[in-house]
Amino acid sequence: MTTRTNLLHGLTLKRFLTALLINALIAAALYRFVWDHNFGSAMVSTQVVGLSILLSWTLASNWKQTRVPPLFAQLLAVVCGSAAGGVLVVFVKGYDLEHVIMNPEGLINLVSLGIMWGAFIVLIVVAREREARAQAAMHQAAAERHLHGKQLLEARLQLMQAQIEPHFLFNTLSSVQHLVDTDPPAASRMLGDLIKYLRAAMPQMREQGTTIGREAELARAYLAIQRVRIGNRFDFSIDIPEILLERRFPPMMLLTLAENAVKHGFETKSCCGEIRVTAHETGNELVIEVRDNGAGLATDCPAGVGLANVRERLSTLYGEAARLTIEENVPSGVCARITVPNQTPAAAAGSAVPAAGAA
Amino acid sequence: MAELALQSALRVPLRRRMPGSLPAMTTAIIAEDEPLMREQLKRKLAVAWPELEIVAEAGDGRIAIEAFEREQPDLMFLDIQMPEMNGIEVARKLAGRCRIVFVTAYDDFAIAAFEQGAIDYLLKPVEADRLAASVARLRDQLGKPLPDLGAIVERLAQAAGAASPRLHWIKASIGANVRLIPVEEIAYFQSDEKYTRVVTTGAEALIRKPIRELIEELDPAVFWQIHRATLVNVKHIAGVGRDFRGQPEIQLKNRKDRLTVSRPFAHLFKQM
Fold this sequence. Notes:
The structure holds two protein chains of two kinds.
Chain A: H1 2-7, H2 13-34, H3 39-62, H4 70-93, H5 97-102, H6 105-162, H7 166-182, H8 184-201, E1 210-211, H9 212-229, E2 234-239, E3 248-249, H10 253-266, E4 273-282, E5 285-292, H11 304-318, E6 323-328, E7 334-341, H12 345-349, H13 352-358
Parallel strand pairs in A: 2-4
Antiparallel strand pairs in A: 1-3, 4-5, 5-7, 6-7
Helix pairs in contact in A: 2-3, 3-4, 3-6, 4-6, 6-11, 7-8, 8-9, 9-10
Chain B: H1 2-10, E1 27-31, H2 35-48, E2 53-58, H3 61-71, E3 75-79, H4 87-94, E4 99-104, H5 111-116, E5 120-123, H6 128-141, H7 150-159, E6 169-174, E7 177-182, E8 186-192, E9 195-200, E10 204-207, H8 211-217, E11 223-227, E12 230-233, E13 237-242, E14 248-252, E15 258-260
Parallel strand pairs in B: 1-2, 1-3, 3-4, 4-5
Antiparallel strand pairs in B: 6-7, 8-9, 8-12, 9-10, 11-12, 13-14, 14-15
């Protein structure tokens, strides 16, 4: 039972009607250009041969075997189907068998015509099926990759957010320890900044999302600490328009840019410069920039995992809609820029609108 | 005049040893770029070793060398991460001429190397007990000849990766700006008559540096030459197929273009 239904798989009404139509067209062409006897006779011949081919090919394409390549088997089925169709035509029309054997040209013409057309159509169908299968597989793979990547990334994201550089923590605490003896108000300020930094950087203290304003606070705390530590070698400013403060922004990215500016800009330079953090929006994009006029990046200086992480996370969160660019600043230093799609607060406020409309 | 400027820059008076004064005090220079850390070490040393005289302080490696030449101290306390010239480079220059104590932070790459060698080191933040032990050892060694630190310092320098500089960033003009592209992001380089094309996942740029210079400067484990004119980043290769002549042809991740592998480089992709 199941075998039979399996063997006829793919023989849909649509396919059947299409076959009838093609057979009719061939009959019309034959009547018009080749044979001069009546249209009905041509029609019967092509329908019988065509449907015979259709049946034979359907059976072959559902026949599970491994000895012959599937395409070869299907083409063979076309040949058999066409021949069987030819024989059937002889019986249906009640031709004299002896006469046909003596003058087989007509039958041979009919059968070879069936083979030609049948093969042609089968090839088209097989090619289309193959393409559809490949396309489906590709979509499937892309979807899987996307899902897998997202999960993987989320896991890594958590991990990365948990990473507070121990170097930085120890150095800062050691500075605070010294300031407690020598300059208590400065010690208190530095501790305050450290608390702010830790609060923002601890993963369990973060909500899933964060805003530009909060990320800017984190960067400010970090820069204030570093500025005292390395002896006021740089000044810094953070200039973000009020309207952008509440915009959502991925965590820890701005901090990475600030860390980089300090590290490449001023840790190897004795004096003196500034770091400027700015943000602006351009139509549908949000741009955050950290610009320093420090020592700049030597081309043989390892790029570090921080920036690579930012780049990777941006690409998973936003695809090609976001980017990190690093440029030389004029006259010296580096400008690092993160561009993300602008998600206006309107989207978040959207849920309130229907309620207001109903009232 | 220059010395005056230097003094004011360091905000410390330079005290000279009086010729003919009582048995010469032990002298030391502290080289450390973080002023707070410098101050802290000085205060702690004053407690742990009151007779030690800090004759100069330096905020970077170059000033440290200058101060050494001028003061000829018995001891140098050297921070490792310093501007202009790092502590290891300073130690390289001074090896055999004075005793050196490295002052380093948590997790520094060099600690293992110190422990193997005879070099003394202090961990930041400096703890009183640890400092006292270190001071006792230093005092004990002062009368004895200087150990030969040359070999150890060389090893340290190698551990710090000072050996061969590799290219990690490509500078490419895009419009009026000079873009810095990390080499990890570059899929391939291809020479294009006068210029070299730098191709990343989403962008392209032209640079003047020819392929043969890039080969010298890039990490050969990451960038493979696959053609006279092409260097490919191994990490961007998705697979290797064959073109219609049967030559190996590289497919890239995230890019549609394919790269021909020419015959002399085909062995790179032979099956093992």
